[in-house]
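Priority: low. Protein: Polysaccharide deacetylase family protein. Input follows.
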Amino acid sequence: MLVRHIINIVSVIAGVLLISAVSFNKLPWWSLLVLVFLWLLVTAYGVANIRSGYFLKSLNSNPDAEGKKIAITFDDGPDQNTLEILKVLDKYDVKGTFFCIGKQVEKHPEILNRIIEAKHIIGNHTFSHDKLIDLYGTDRFTEEIKDADEIIEKISGKRPLLFRPPYGITNPKIARAVKKTGHAVIGWNKRSFDTTIPSEKVILRRVTKNLKSGDVILLHDTKSITVTVLEQLLLFLQRNNFTTVTIDELFSIQAYV
Ligand SMILES: [Zn+2]
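Result:
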């Protein structure tokens, strides 16, 4: 049972008790509002934080990983900038995992194949990555995942089994969609904020601070700042004897059908 189910049951019981207390004038009417507010707060936290596991189980890190293993993941490509990322990874002989957007794959099929030829792993990051995608119903969200799988398979011959929800947002509809498609949901535990933070130093500090075996780093191959950060990160990993693995290897799961 997920924490969400326990919280919902407790909230309903608390609600019933509060209603009877209010009707017997033991508590003020607004105590019910407090309960609703707390419930909304917890639910919003669950929606915004994939690591909370509030709506679905996701793989965010593997603390049992032996031998100082780190997985570096890149979201939102393929993009022209991905080629620069690939050069850095190649220079240090490191393999990464790329969560690709279907419509970007359509735009840059040759870059998708370059990623695969270089022995990196591809995952699904929906077809459109629409700003309002988290408001989509279960069927429409399921189509988003399937459409991305199809375009990736059409171009590369590989059908992904790894899925990362856009913005790391989860909700009951996304949970149902993923249950239907059967993908493993991949989160992270080291978020770089490389799409919003303008300082390479700050981004690097965010991803290297308290870094430990089994951690999953989130970067974006669409950002030029990430190319510089990546090189510094790989030097840091080298200096500290970390090895870099792909997501399927870190969690001992299959990347493709
Ligand atoms: Zn994304």
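Residues 69-251 form a domain with the TIM Barrel fold (CATH 3.20.20.370). The pocket of zinc ion is lined by residues 75-76, 125, 129, 166 (CB under 6 Å).
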